[in-house]
Here is the input.
Amino acid sequence: MVPGSFDPEPLRWLGVAGPRSRVLRLLTAVLAVVGTSIGFAIAAGAAWGAWSATGAGHGTARASRLPAGRRPAATVSGTQVSVSWSAVFLPSGADVGGYVVNRLGGSSPIQVCRVATPTTSCTDTTPPTNQQISYTVTPAQESWRGATSPPSAPVVVAA
Here is the structure.
């Protein structure tokens, strides 16, 4: 062998010599599987989360789903509408953080109340008049939202 030249023979037993080495093929296959898995996870709407903790010992964490809101009842009183609903709870039995109440009847829902638990009612003080409107309730836990309730029966506020 000429001094300063490269002899690939010692690397052949590792499978890293040659243009289509086993290592290169293996690396390509691993990257293809990882890339495909990430692509499927993104397409499926998978949620990702991360956190850090310090200390010693063991711990567990369990994800929970916020429940759907219950159908509210809407009652007209003068020029206002009282909206009430039954409480919903997390699978653990704990209260949800609160509720968001939206008015339906225009081109898009309008948030009229946001209340913390244990409150299960609110008053819409500015409903439109002479128009059918209804209300939905969505459980909320910080920035998380449960499924929106079915709408209340429609009501009309007289002018």
Summary: The chain has two domains: 9-43, 73-156. The beta strands are 73-77, 80-84, 98-104, 110-116, 121-124, 132-141, 144-145, 155-156.
